[in-house]
Every structure is written in structure tokens, then in C-alpha cells.
Automatic annotation (TrEMBL):
Keyword Electron transport in record: no
Protein name as it appears in the record: Sodium/proton-dependent alanine carrier protein
Provenance organism: Fusobacterium vincentii ATCC 49256
Family under the similarity heading: Belongs to the alanine or glycine:cation symporter (AGCS) (TC 2.A.25) family.
Top-level taxon of origin: Bacteria
GO CC, alphabetical: plasma membrane
InterPro entries xrefs: Na/Ala_symport (IPR001463)
Region forming the signal peptide: none
Keyword Membrane: yes
Residue intervals passing through the bilayer: 15-34
Length: 99
């Protein structure tokens, strides 16, 4: 177990010690922005129109409901996983800082 801890600690120190991960994420964002020709800015109006379009099928859900559902799935799972990780690493007292 200490071997795994040492590996994770060294990778963590490498990525966060000099903020390499931050530069990697910014670089990836810039790269994909150029590859998609800045889609997030070009199509912003269309994204907002589709998001708030109130087309609902007979048994379906609207675009806004789909957005809320997708966001809830991601945020909810992240909160659960974050609390579980904090408790498993820091013990039961770490729950007070997460909640």
C-alpha cells in the first residue's frame, strides 16, 4: 500500500507542484478551441435557443430538462464520490469539512 501511496504522491507533486496540470488543461482548451473553430463562441446563440426551446414529445423531455438532468447526474456523482474519497482518506472527521 505504501508503494501506491508513493506513486500517487509523486505524480501529484509533479502535476500540482509547479502547476503543470493547470497549464496542460489550458493548453488542451486552447487546442480544442482552434480545432473546433471556437464553436463555443460561434454557436452560443444557437445553443441558448435550443436549450430554451420548449419542444416536448408525447413521452419525452425538453432540451432544458435534459440539460438539468445531465448536470444533476454529473454534480451529484461528483459530490458523492468526493465525500467517499474524503472519508476514506481522512477518516470520519473529514466529513464535517465536506458537508
Amino acid at each position: 500500500m505504501t508503494g501506491i501511496y508513493k506513486i500517487v504522491d509523486s505524480v501529484n507533486g509533479l502535476l500540482w507542484g509547479k502547476n503543470i496540470l493547470v497549464f496542460m488543461l489550458i493548453g488542451a482548451a486552447i487546442y480544442f478551441s482552434f480545432k473546433t473553430k471556437f464553436m463555443q463562441f460561434r454557436l452560443f446563440n444557437k445553443i441558448v435557443k435550443v436549450l430554451f426551446k420548449n419542444e416536448k414529445g408525447k413521452h419525452g423531455i425538453s432540451s432544458l430538462e435534459t440539460f438539468f438532468l445531465g448536470t444533476a447526474c454529473r454534480v451529484g456523482a461528483g459530490n458523492i464520490a468526493g465525500v467517499v474519497a474524503a472519508i476514506s482518506v481522512g477518516g470520519s472527521g473529514s466529513f464535517l469539512e465536506c458537508g
